[in-house]
Each structure stands twice: as C-alpha cells, then as structure tokens.
Amino acid sequence: MTVLTHLEQWKATGAISGTQFDAISALARKDRFSVFVELNTALYLGVLALVAGTGWTMTTYSARLGDVTILSALTAVFCWCLYYCFSRALPYSQREDESGHWPWCGNGRGPACSTRRS
After folding, report:
1. pLDDT tens readout for residues 9-37
2. 96 C-beta neighbours (distance < 10 Å), count
3. Could you list the residue range(s) of the whole structural domain that residue 13 is in?
C-alpha cells in the first residue's frame, strides 16, 4: 500500500479532514511548492540583524575605537560592495533585455517585466 492509499482510507474514515488530505497528499506526490516568501523573509531578517549588529557595535565601542576607525571600516565595506557589484555587471547594451530569470517574469506578464508576450 502506498502513502496515498493510506491517506484516502484515513479521509474516508474521518481520521483526517479534506484540507489535511490535500496538504499531505501534495507532499506525498512530491508536488512543487514555492518558498519565495520564506526566503525573502529570511533575507530581510538577515539584513536587519546585520544592520542592528553594526549599530550596536558602533554605539558600544565608539568611545574605545574612535569614530575614524568605525567610519573607515564601514567605508571599506561599502567600497568593497560597490567593487563587487560593478565588477560582475554586464556591459551596457542598447537592445531590450528579456529577464526571464525572475519568478514574476517567467511568463512575461508580471508587473516588473520589461517585455509583454502575447
């Protein structure tokens, strides 16, 4: 007997509800599901933790380290970020770019898509 067979029997006997059956059977069939919101939330929480930690470090150790040291370190990190972004950027092009790698641009009908497909 498969997992789906067991789930159908449990649903028929009333051991699980219809919504539980739908959710568990989707997992048993290994249907794809999006984790876009969860990944974005984790990313924003990580950035928030980084900024909060930097702020806490500056307020705690600013008297001991000195303002120049803290500002120099933050400026160095900022310059490295700029270098990293610009060194990996594609060169400028006059042609229209189809960005199909974004989740909302997959079918060309999303709000941020530059081209509309018919």
Report:
1. 999 999 999 899 988 888 888 888 788 99
2. 7
3. 1-33
